[in-house]
Design brief:
Elements (H helix, E strand, L loop, with lengths): L9 E3 L2 E3 L7 E5 L4 E5 L10 E3 L20 E10 L7 E6 L2 E2 L1 E6 L2 E7 L5 E4 L7 E10 L18 E2 L3 E6 L2 E3 L9 E8 L3 E12 L6 E8 L5 E7 L3 E2 L9 E11 L4 E2 L3 E2 L2 E9 L2 E10 L4 E4 L3 E4 L2 E2 L3 E5 L12 H14 L3 E4 L6 H10 L2 E5 L17 H17 L6 E8 L9 H14 L4 E6 L3 H4 L6 E4 L11 H12 L4 E5 L22 H15 L8 E3 L5 E8 L2 E5 L13 H10 L5 E3 L6 E2 L3 E8 L3 E6 L2 E7 L5 E8 L3 E9 L2 E9 L20
Parallel strand pairs: 29-30, 29-36, 30-31, 31-32, 32-33, 33-34, 34-35, 40-46
Antiparallel strand pairs: 1-2, 3-14, 4-5, 4-6, 6-12, 7-11, 7-14, 8-13, 9-10, 9-12, 15-17, 16-17, 17-21, 18-19, 18-24, 20-21, 22-23, 24-25, 26-27, 27-28, 37-38, 39-41, 41-44, 42-43, 42-45, 45-46
Length: 696
């Protein structure tokens, strides 16, 4: 995990000391020196470990069975406060404690937070004393019906899963207490290529009163030039602030002439927004945020438009879990995923099924990939959990999580859609009324972005609640092959003017299981069949621009303790990349050929090396017009790509033993080996031993 070196803060062992008296704000990570042990379990004497956070107790047991450890544990560490902290304010910010946290300082209760996927922040000044202090965080991922998500096809890793920060300010500051956001919100009031009219809202915590206070805002371009600035001494009392009795708001309107727009992958340009709080002319606090100016809309017939131009919004659904890091915050893993997704050619990504970390969002801000950003109200899909029951405590929890999600990520240019839920059902109480309340709150906080959510049935009951809507449909896997195009055509008619997207589709596939037959059992997840399903789905979706999003389920294989299928227990293997990110499956290269304009050529089914048929087909994915096949050095066929960038060379006669397959397209070439073993049973039953594709 990346660390920021702060000269005003010095970490000594388990202590924290040496705060510079003239520094406007000091922030450090509390990552080391934590002790960890079981809580409230009086039946045994708990083992005490020393750990570094982020940390989870579920990194391995999620693969051992359905009943992975969902319990309650204590994290403790020491804080040393010296005289330099006198008259300072101290805040503790936790980016994520999953799924419930209680905070104590010197064994005195400070507060609690119910969400593992949004941040919380508490002022702990009044609980601290000079010298040694004991910080305690209680973390629990125990089953509860009043905290979302109650269920899901993913693991809920218990622990302090994201970083913990200690923030030290003066008596007057830009508030960290406004739902654990930065306190700075850039409202994009009217954006065009000619002019960007914005309003910069700053939430302040002013213990020293208003006299002599001023807020100053600067908009700085990537070259370091200030393109707009303003200041104000007008403050409005925040009577509705639930966390801060000293909260005020400043609103400063600004305009940037001829702005360079955040224009997706083509030009993901961002500006720095620097906000300073002054007292009698001296800077007493400062925050910097990044944002990009853009405008967008969705047309019911033509799909998504960014800055006035159509953008086919296609990409992947992505969980935040990384290989061997589980649900833990890991910047290297997040950057790696963003790079692989960018290389694929994705123009959009759906973050599922909970708010991802701010750093994760920034990876897509920087790469110009539009985000569907989702609340942690996840239904059970095809499983037996109620998903939603009209529990007032649950609704209060979800509503607070929604506000936190929006405020903490407000300035991201990539986020264009707030998603309210995934796959809720009407099996118990009806969720539509509550979803309308969530939608109203989202539009109140952020009227500029669009709202959405994902459904898998009951379109008529969910219709019209949000601006746009998305379907989860698995034709070729849970449903019959083909049919997705006709389904979306009928759904569009029924939607009566509400734009519809396809936000989940796909099939399972293992790079260790091969053959040209159809999926035949819960244990057989053929890589070649997975690619075939994606080809069929994309052939239909590529000709339907009204489908405003097309998001594959899913980017990578993802741990899920409820799964017992394919060739790995506890894994949902519908990813187009393996869990360890070491293998990009055939389906990945199929989409790369269709989505990424950089020249590419890839021989599919290359891991299906041992074949029992002497005559076989060879499929390639390429964005080149045509390609030529060579077998054991001999030129055999030249073929042109079809409408989805596939070429199939039919009836290739293999010799017994090893065969070298080479395909060339212009300056590109790809090569693999196929072994014909007559003793093996030919695997062509089930209907597609002869592959589809164009040939001439």
């Amino acid at each position: 995990m990346k660390k920021t070196v702060l000269t005003a803060v010095l970490l000594l062992g388990l202590g924290l000391t040496a705060f510079a008296a003239d520094a406007p704000r000091n922030e450090t990570l509390l990552d080391s020196g934590w002790t960890f042990f079981a809580s409230y379990d009086i039946s045994r004497r708990s083992t005490v470990e020393t750990v570094t956070v982020p940390h989870s107790w579920n990194l391995t047991d999620v693969f051992e069975g359905l009943n992975y450890n969902r319990g309650t544990y204590l994290y403790q560490r020491n804080l040393v406060c010296d005289a330099s902290m006198k008259d300072k304010r101290v805040f503790l910010k936790c980016d994520g404690v999953n799924t419930y946290a209680e905070i104590a300082v010197n064994r005195q209760y400070v507060g609690q937070h119910a969400s593992g996927y949004t941040a919380c922040c508490f002022e702990i000044t009044d609980w601290l004393k000079e010298g040694d202090n004991k910080l305690t965080i209680v973390a629990s991922n125990a089953y509860r019906t009043d905290i979302a998500p109650m269920a899901g096809d993913f693991n809920m890793y218990g622990g302090i899963t994201r970083p913990v920060h200690l923030i030290v300010t003066g008596q007057d500051c830009i508030s960290p207490l406004d739902y654990a956001s930065t306190g700075v919100y850039v409202h994009q009031d009217n954006i065009s290529a000619a002019r960007a009219d914005i309003s910069v809202e700053t939430v302040l915590s002013l213990k020293g009163g208003l006299e002599g206070k001023q807020v100053r805002v600067s908009i700085v371009d990537a070259a370091g030039k200030t393109v707009a600035s303003g200041q104000s001494t007008d403050f409005v009392r925040r009577e509705d602030s639930p966390f801060d009795a000293h909260a005020y708001t400043s609103m400063i309107p600004l305009s940037v002439s001829s702005p360079r727009l955040w224009n997706g992958r083509q030009d993901p340009y961002q500006y720095k927004v620097a906000v300073e709080l002054l007292s009698d002319g001296q800077v007493v606090d400062r925050i910097e945020e990044q944002t990009g100016f853009r405008y967008f809309h969705v047309d019911v017939d033509e799909g998504f438009f960014l800055n006035g131009k159509h953008l086919d919004l296609h990409g992947v659904c992505r969980h935040e879990e990384g290989y061997q890091t589980g649900g833990l915050y890991n910047e290297e893993a997040m950057a790696q995923d963003a790079d692989i997704i960018y290389e694929l050619g994705s123009t959009g990504v759906r973050f599922v099924h909970y708010p991802h970390s701010k750093y994760d969002v920034q990876m897509y801000d920087q790469r110009g990939i539009v985000l569907w950003y989702e609340l942690n109200l996840a239904g059970p899909g095809g499983y037996g959990s109620p998903g939603y029951m009209k529990n007032p405590d649950l609704e209060k929890n979800v509503m607070q999580n929604l506000v936190e999600m929006i405020r903490q990520n407000y300035n991201s240019p990539a986020i264009c859609f707030w998603s309210l839920c995934n796959e809720l059902s009407f099996k118990y109480d009806e969720p539509a009324t509550f979803l309308r309340q969530l939608n109203a709150k989202a539009k109140e906080i952020d009227p500029q972005r669009l709202t959405t959510f994902a459904i898998c049935y009951d379109q008529d009951k969910f219709q019209g609640i949000t601006d746009v809507l998305g379907w989860n449909k698995y034709f070729g896997w849970y449903l019959g092959e083909g049919g997705v195009g006709e389904f979306m055509d009928q759904a569009k008619i029924a939607a009566a003017g509400q734009p519809l997207g396809l936000c989940e589709y796909g099939a399972a596939g293992s790079p260790n299981q091969h053959g040209f037959e159809r999926r035949v059992s819960n244990r057989v997840h053929l890589e070649e069949y997975q690619a075939r399903v994606h080809e069929d789905n994309w052939r239909a979706m590529s000709t339907r621009p009204f489908v405003w999003c097309k998001f594959i389920w899913q980017y990578s294989d993802n741990p899920s303790s409820i799964r017992d299928e394919g060739d790995m227990r506890g894994m949902n293997d519908k990813g187009i990349v393996t869990w360890d990110r070491s293998i990009r499956k055939d389906a990945y290269y199929f989409y790369k050929a269709n989505w990424n304009p950089e020249p590419m050529l890839y021989i599919a089914a290359r891991r299906y090396t041992q074949r029992g048929e002497g005559v076989t087909d060879v499929k390639v994915y390429t964005n080149q017009a045509k390609a030529t096949l060579y077998l054991n050095g001999k030129k055999l066929q030249t073929a042109r790509k079809d409408d989805i960038n596939c070429i199939v060379f039919h009836d290739v006669a293999l010799r017994e033993g090893e065969n070298t397959i080479m395909v060339k397209a212009g300056k590109l070439s790809d090569e693999c080996s196929l072994i014909y073993d007559p003793s093996l049973k030919p695997r062509v039953n089930g209907g597609f031993g002869r592959l589809d594709g164009a040939v001439n």
